[in-house]
User: Fold this.
Amino acid sequence: MSADEEDDLDLRELDDEELTEQIQDDLYDGLKDEVCEGVEILLERGWTPYDVLTRALVGGMQIVGNDFRDGILFVPEVLLAANAMKAGMAILRPLLVETGAPKLGKMVIATVKGDIHDIGKNLVGMMMEGAGFEVINLGINTDAEEFLAAIDEHKPDILGMSALLTTTMPYMKTVIDELVRQGKREDVIVLVGGAPLNADFAKAIGADAYCKDAAVAVETAQELMKRRHNQRAGA
Ligand code: B1M
Assistant:
């Protein structure tokens, strides 16, 4: 579509499938306002916030990721796309959180030292909040000292770590080793996630579980919290 045609495009005239595709195109082009407008329209049409997030926004980011990998997109374009993604997520966040569910537990989450990728980690945080967990998000580039200080301060049930780079994922082990060294490993359930990880890696570094995406993070957290309650009740 030409730039002129795009200027004239009325997003409201598109059906759901066309609009989803258009949101993904706009995300790709880093058009924050257009992405936000598309998100609002899908919500008005009765889409659940979860569907808007996973089908429109995450789907769009996957296309960006593929073209970044293949050298079609570069860091500045990806940053613009990431900003558009974040703007869309900001609309959805209060809606995902608004479940009124009783608090199931507390989670501290962050992206590990050396790594500044935060979209997936923020998404996990949002979904956990939506599922009724209290979430303390420490941000990006977080070192072991900061993780440990947050555990002392907030006494979470769950520690979540995110890494998107093969060079930063080993740092998760540094954090877990520090937990062990300080005798605090048994105090928290450790969940890890991020595109380059897998279950074998999680096991090898001593985490409780690898979560392939935000939905799995919620399910795993709920399951492990239940198990922990049962163990404590039986002790
Ligand atoms: Co980056 N980058 N990047 N990048 N970037 C990747 C990760 C890469 C795979 C791209 C590629 O080559 N295909 C590649 C890593 C290669 C590798 O290590 N093997 C890469 C690279 C190389 C780099 C730089 C080194 C590039 C450079 O400077 N030359 C640089 C590193 C900076 C640093 O961190 N020190 C860099 C920079 C950037 C930007 C700043 C431009 C931007 C980040 C913006 C931001 O986050 N604010 C960026 C982006 C956007 C990406 C891609 C394109 C998309 C990541 C994303 O947001 N995905 C990414 C390509 C890709 O992943 N395919 C790429 C969408 C998000 C919803 O998914 O993050 O996987 P994801 O999260 C999922 C799951 O993984 C899981 O749930 C989430 C939701 O379902 N999950 C968890 C994640 N964390 C979890 C924590 C949990 C549980 C589940 O805790 C319990």
In short: The pocket of CO-5-methoxybenzimidazolylcobamide is lined by residues 58, 61, 64-65, 68-69, 75, 78-79, 82, 109, 114-121, 123-124, 160-162, 164-166, 191-196, 211, 213-214, 217 (CB under 6 Å). Residues 147 and 175 are 7 Å apart (CA to CA).
